[in-house]
Design goal:
The longest helix has 21 residues, at 81-101. A hairpin with a 3-residue loop joins strand 1 (106-109) and strand 2. The termini are far apart. The chain has four helices and two strands. Helix content is 55%, strand content 7%. Helix 1 runs antiparallel to helix 2 (42-57), helix 1 (20-38) packs across helix 3 (65-72) and helix 2 crosses helix 4 (81-101). A two-stranded antiparallel sheet has the order 1-2. The protein is mainly alpha-helical.
């Protein structure tokens, strides 16, 4: 995936203010490209998406980083390996809850995952 800073969207407007809408578009484009590259591997998605955001952050003044990172977190941005591990854990729990919601026709084996009864 190409993670070079994009010229198509500028996250700083003509008055030098942080443009949240443009930054959301940048994050969305990185997320879509990363999803295509990583398919079903959530941990890989988080790593690649986060690396792409980090490249884009270099084009922003540091004053705007907190707001940019709050927005990037909506697409599972992670700054540290611990963030990645926590994100994977939360993702797995959400998947298990969706499986449980399917009812008794699907059982969960903590070692083997879900399977139809």
């Amino acid at each position: 995936m190409n993670v070079e800073p994009t010229e198509e969207f500028q996250a700083i407007d003509a008055q030098g203010r942080f443009d949240e809408r443009a930054w959301r578009n940048i994050c969305a484009r990185i997320a879509v490209a990363t999803s295509k590259d990583c398919r079903q591997f959530f941990d890989q998605y988080v790593k690649v998406f986060s690396a792409g955001v980090d490249v884009q952050l270099k084009s922003l003044p540091s004053d705007f980083h907190p707001a940019a990172l709050r927005i990037a977190a909506q697409w599972d941005y992670a700054q540290t390996p611990n963030d990645i591990a926590n994100g994977i854990r939360e993702h797995n729990l959400a998947v298990m809850e969706r499986i449980r919601a399917l009812g008794p026709s699907v059982s969960i084996d903590n070692n083997q995952g879900a399977h139809a009864d």
